[in-house]
Amino acid sequence: MNWKSALTFLKVNSPTIFSVVGGVGVVATAYLASSASFKAANVIRFHERDSGPNPNTKERIKERTKLVWKFYIPAGISTAATVACIAGANRVGIKKTAAAQVALAVSERAYSEYRDKVIEEFGERKDQSIRDKVAAERVKDNPPPSTIISGPGNVLCCELFTGRYFTSDMESLRRAQNDINDKVLKHDYATLDDFYYIVDLRPTSTSGQLGWTSDKQMELEFSTTLSEDNRPCITFEYNYVKPL
Fold it and tell me: At 164, is the pLDDT very low, low, confident or very high (cuts 50, 70, 90)?
C-alpha cells in the first residue's frame, strides 16, 4: 500500500478509527488514573509517616499536590487525546452527513430535470409507460413476502422508495397524499415518518430526516402491475423527497 492509498484509507475510515482510538483511550485513561492514584497514595503515606501530616489543611493539600502531580500527567494526556478523538469522530460524521444530504438534493434535482425533459420530448403517456415498465421490473426483482403489512385497504401495494409491501387502496393513498400536503401548508414541512404513520408502515432509520417542504407539494406517482403470483399490485414513488 503506497502513501496515497494509505491516506485514502485513513480519510474514508476516519470516523471508525477515531471511535476505536477513543474507546481504547477511555480504558487507558481509567487504568492510568487508577495507577496514578495508587502511586500517589503510597508516596503520601510514606511522606507523612516520616514527617507527619501538616496540621494546616490548605498547606497539607499543597504539599500533597507537589508530591503527586507528576503521576497524573499520563492520565491527563490520555484524557485529552480521548476527547480529541471523540470530537474528531463526531465532526467527521457531521461533515459526511452534510455531504450526503447535498448529494441527495443534487440527485433529486437532476432526476426532476430529467423527468421534465422526458415529458417535454416524448409526452406524459410515454413517461408513464416507462415508469410502468420500471415498476414491473422492480416488483419482479423484489417479489412480495409471505407476510404482508396490513393497511387500511386490501389491495397489494409496493412503496418503491424502500421496496416494502403492504395492503391499502388507491383512495387511502391519495388521502394520505392530501394529508401530507395539508401538513406542509400548515407547518412548512412534513417528514417521510408522517406519511408512513398514515399508511401504517414502520419508520426507517432515515425517514425522520427526509420529507417535503412548502417549496413543492408531494405527489404520489402510481403504476400498476402484477406480482409473480398474479396479484394486482399498486406501485408508487414520490415526485421528490429531500433532506430536511
Answer: very high
- Which contacts of 15-21 are long-range, i.e. CB under 8 A and separated by 24 or more positions? 15/89, 15/92, 15/93, 15/96, 18/85, 18/86, 18/88, 18/89, 18/92, 19/85, 19/86, 19/89, 21/81, 21/82, 21/85
CA distance 51 to 67: 13
The whole domain housing 28 covers 3-100
Tell me the whole-structure pTM to 2 decimals.
Answer: 0.55
Q: Average model confidence (pLDDT) for the chain?
A: 77
The mean pLDDT value for 222-236 works out to: 88
C-alpha angle with apex 176: 218 to 159, nearest 5 degrees? Answer: 75
74 or 103, greater pLDDT: 74
* Same-domain status, 71 and 175: no
Residue 105 lies in a domain: no
Q: Count CA atoms within 13 Å of residue 49 on its CB side.
A: 6
pLDDT score recorded for residue 103: 47
Number of domains in the chain: 2
Q: How far apart are CA 57 and CA 54, in angstroms?
A: 7
Predicted confidence (pLDDT) at residue 199 exceeds the cutoff of 70? yes
User: What is the C-alpha separation between 225 and 231, in angstroms, rounded?
Assistant: 8
**Same domain? 52 vs 152:** no
Same-domain check for residues 50 and 129? no
